[in-house]
Amino acid sequence: MALIWWSLVIVHVKSQEKDAAMEAFKSGKTQVLVSTTLIEVGIDIPEASMIVVEHAERYGMAQLHQLRGRVGRGTRPATCILLGSTAHSLERLKLLESSTDGFYLAEIDLKLRGPGEVLGKRQSGFLPEFGLARLDEDGPILEQARSAAEVFLLSCIILWLVHTLHSSLFALLG
């Protein structure tokens, strides 16, 4: 029986401990890394070949896409195991299996799970506070509204500058 060395990375430990555990995994000193989603972005270990995500239904599809991208960067074939606990989550996770386009997956996730709170803690769900528009359906008109608001604000700044310049010149020249 082969002995497997493993490391545990906990978000609330000191940075040096996290770095040491990551370096041990990267160097091959440990073969298994148990971690939070700390490993989602910025970790590049080409020999990592398997990732298991528990309670995958709790994550957005774009985040799961990032997580599965942590493996299979080297010469070894990669495996991504997503563990869900409901039939609904299985349907959503199967969509992830069908695409490697992160933007497409984020769009699908927005349609399925909703945008969540703009000024709150809920990161998904369809909420009544945005009753006039839905981000997944009204994106183009919301972009136009944003552009119009930027033009309006820029106009206000220009008018304020002209007024300030006019007042200063009037005060200076009498």
The CATH homologous superfamily of the largest domain is named P-loop containing nucleotide triphosphate hydrolases
Helix content: 40-55%
Largest sheet: 2 strands, parallel
Average pLDDT confidence is: 78
Tell me what portion of residues adopts beta-strand conformation: 5-15%
In words, what does this structure look like?
The protein has 174 residues and is mainly alpha-helical. A two-stranded parallel sheet has the order 1-2. Strands 3-4 form a two-stranded parallel sheet. Helix 2 (61-68) links the parallel strand 3 and strand 4. It has helices at 15-27, 61-68, 87-97, 102-113, 135-173, and strands at residues 6-8, 32-34, 50-53, 79-82. Helices cover 48% and strands 8% of the residues.
Summarize the structure.
Helix content is 48%, strand content 8%. By secondary structure, it is mainly alpha-helical.
Fill in the keyword field for this structure.
mainly alpha, 4 strands, two-stranded parallel sheet, 2 domains, Rossmann fold, 174 residues
